[in-house]
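Sample intake sheet
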Amino acid sequence: MDAFEDIVGLLLEQQGYWVRGSFKVELTKAEKRLIGKFSSPRWEIDLVAYKPKTDLILAVECKSFFDSPGVRADALVGKDQDGAKRYKLFNEKRLREVVFKRMVAQLAEMGACSPSAKVQLCLAAGKIAGKQDHAKLIEHFAKKGWLLFDRDWYQSRLKEAAKAPYENSVAVVVTKMLRDPQYSV
């Protein structure tokens, strides 16, 4: 996991999820044929977060894009075919269904979730290109039933994290420092 994924994972853990990074979904040959990716290696999901209380698995794709223009909505709403390649799970319904079905079966076999767990797709976007992109993403994700972890999501979760008891974690320490007036920038 990279630093951005670590922070998203920490924020999800504080909401009662267990989190695993770089989760490899082991597709069968038949499943690879079904999605038209015969030689596909194991499918990797940036973060898998499960909350037993709700029996919900979050499949989180993380795109920090801090040193770029940011996530562009057109890549997720079907208007930019080249950009869409970065977001296969969002843009390829059959792929998403097959990968999520296998992921639940794999996690259930490991004893990590119930076989009836539901999956919700999420995008953790460190930076979104602009206000119009942000508005389009909010609307599109609401229609699809997906979650968008955007600046508002981070700000509210980081405020909660700053109030939590001390934990020897880079994310927690930095959060506490940023919230402390002694360290204000």
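Comment: The domain at 3-152 is CATH 3.40.1350.10 (Trna Endonuclease; Chain: A, domain 1). The first helix runs from residue 3 to 13.
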